[in-house]
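TA notes. Do not distribute before section.
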Amino acid sequence: MAAYLVVDTKIKNDEAYEEYKLRAKLIVESYGGEYLARGGNTTAPENELWTPTRLVVIRFPSRQNAEDFLSSDEYAPVKAIRHKNAETTMCIIDGM
């Protein structure tokens, strides 16, 4: 069953974050991930719980693929770039 990684990011350093995006994409794809949305125009018709900043949606073949990506050794130094240059909220949602 597919799983979706949904990420909301508030970027603090645009230049450094560009490096993150380039490096992360290759690793995402190596775990079977496919970007479905990446920072496009977002509207929030209802926002009682949360107002998104910059949304990314990635479909993985399974929850295990998504979790393996997030905890992988090759992603760790790239994740450090994100932590240094952005604030992030993310969740994994099982598909149907």
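Switch to the second chain here.
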Amino acid sequence: MRKVYSKIDEIAGNVITVTASDIRYGELAVVSSAHGDSLAEVIRLMEDKVVLQVYSGSRGVSTGDEVRFLGHPMRVSFSDDLLGRVFDGGGNPRDKGPDLTENLIEIGGPSVNPAKRIIPRNMIRTGIPMIDLFNTLVESQKLPVFSVSGEPYNPLLARIAMQAEVDMIILGGCGLKYDDYLYFRDALEEGGAMSRAIFFVHTAADPIVEALLVPDISLAVAERFALKGRRVLVLLTDMTNFSDALKEIAITMEQVPSNRGYPGDLYSQLAARYEKAVDFEGAGSITILAVTTMPGDDVTHPVPDNTGYITEGQFYLRNGRIEPFGSLSRLKQLVNKDTRDDHRSLMDGMIKLYAAYLESMEKKAMGFRMSDWDQKLLKYGDIFEREMMDLSVNIPLEGALDKGWEILAECFTPEETGLRSELTKTFWPKAQAQIQK
């Protein structure tokens, strides 16, 4: 039996308060006002006081309007008909396609029991050397992309969406500019990947509360597809916008603020989403790659700071490149041992030489005399940045490994690389070896 109440006690911003009983957290309600019906969600319970967030805003809502509780939380349709479609943060079609109302599933459920998970063991290839070679993305991993506003993080996600060797892509956009939404859509359509993708997009012009729904809807759908055996990659952008939406609602509800005004449960809210990453025994998996923009490039900002405690590494995007220092995939060692014999050694050796290159750059900037070794390092660093770090480089892992050896051979002798002799004998480019003899 649906409960109907005809008196609203308080209206504060987009939050309304109703006196009601037997209501549960997260339950949906319909608010009927002069402007029509609006969905609202229960976001706080205080004895018989029920606080609801109105999705479309409380403009036009008065204290005498009717509130009808639906008896269930937010739900979204689940089927293969979702593929190739674009929806808003509330699960409504944004692409002018038909509404999907069958096989509804609840969103925001609990994470999978850790005892039911299996240890990550498969690599996800992306064709981007700074990921595949140096910080491998692992199936069922949860990784943020730490970035400054203005960096090409959305083009990076679009490339990963087109090239990642997974069964399907789910893109969840929080506070996207409309141009970014169109970019994602057009890029995947032109790349032929739209047929295996689902978009849940909240733009900056949409009601703020829908930004909170996007990760939950994306992950609820991903979980169902994973249980059907699909390898799902969930791309979320931008989790700082999601956190700012939490902050705005917390301020409206007059909660005691924590660090920089964010709610005290920010860590729990983020963890509840990131911990949905999972690899099911005998079924599929969910891998999460989520952008977190850092205001002022400040990694101690509450959003990236809390995120770092939850996730299994991070990618740092600076100056249009994935930086080798600071970027980390904590699970890469689980799969690097199974790719090629030279993978881990080449990765470590090239990063060590790149660090030496940066030291030589500092010496050069300070006017110190440059030795022959410094000149070799400067040549190496220039080639490494151009042919490995540039995000336009698109080669498979094996090609990246071969390219790494070619770069080393162009700048150094085998002995100067510090790599084991058995590796240099096997993988050193044959033509270059003849020249050096």
